[in-house]
Amino acid sequence: MRRAMKTSGAARKTGTAGAPGTLGTACRRAAVMLARGGALAALAVMLARPGWLAPLFAPFADNGAPAIYPRASLLDLTLSHLAIVAAASAAGAIAALAAGIFVTRRAGAEFLPVARSVVHIGQTFPPVAVLALAVPAVGFGVKPVLIALILYGLLPIFESTIAGLQDVPADAVDAARGMGMSALQRLAWVELPLAFPVILNGIRLAVVINLGTATIGSTVAAKGLGDVIIAGLQTSNTAFVLQGGLVVALLAVLIYDALGVIGRWLAPASAARREGGA
């Protein structure tokens, strides 16, 4: 009888304590979903119907200056901007991933300090300086921007690749070896899948870095959202600067969040693989 009373009391306490926590979690999720929807809606309006926002930007425009950037469609500039970022991020991810894999193998371990130094130099070297050096070699346009963005985005992907691969449980690798898998098979089917959530965090950071840095590409005639910002700076039109900056910021938030959702979705599968290997 006493045990039943204690169990009943514990159940009441658990239910009472758990309800506020569940409610708080639901409220946080609802707030996150609302913020995502608001950011997506704001971006859609700015790209598809920028004229609707003219009254909001008008106070930031000088006397008689247009409140909305008139020289090109914000949607076209955004697509060009995203194409540059996607190409640079993909190329940087391939290079950093290959380097990270190499230095975590037995044959390449001795090259880790050198590779890390080179990657850190790429991060610390200003992208503007890279553009200044690249333009005489490859000309104006997209090419020098790609070079600058690739170099600037290597570090987070390289370091996350090393961290992810080094964190793979030895038991999982040993189990794969015991099954007769070759070194390449172990890498492809065991190590990379387990390390991918960590690697994806580095890719998220690199993409966001490239989204912001790509705006300087307009200084070397690479079409993108930097056109709007630079036009605003040249004409002292704050409305243009705000438009370009807001679109870049919204893109960064939404893409970073989307990649985070993918990472959280993959994390349970990675954890299950780890437990299975153990």
UniProtKB/TrEMBL annotation:
Entry keyword Transmembrane helix: yes
Alphabetical list of Gene3D superfamilies matching this protein: MetI-like
Report the locations given in the UniProt record: Cell membrane
Membrane-spanning residues = 38-61, 81-104, 125-155, 246-267
SUPFAM superfamilies linked to this entry: MetI-like
UniProt keyword list? Membrane, Transmembrane, Transmembrane helix, Transport
Any one of the GO CC terms: plasma membrane
An example GO BP is:
transmembrane transport
Recorded topology in the membrane: Multi-pass membrane protein
Q: Does the keyword Metal-binding apply?
A: no
Principal location listed in the UniProt entry = membrane
Q: Fetch the CDD domains from UniProt.
A: TM_PBP2
The entry sums up its family as follows:
Belongs to the binding-protein-dependent transport system permease family.
List the protein's name.
ABC transporter, permease protein
What is the organism of origin for this protein?
Answer: Burkholderia thailandensis (strain ATCC 700388 / DSM 13276 / CCUG 48851 / CIP 106301 / E264)
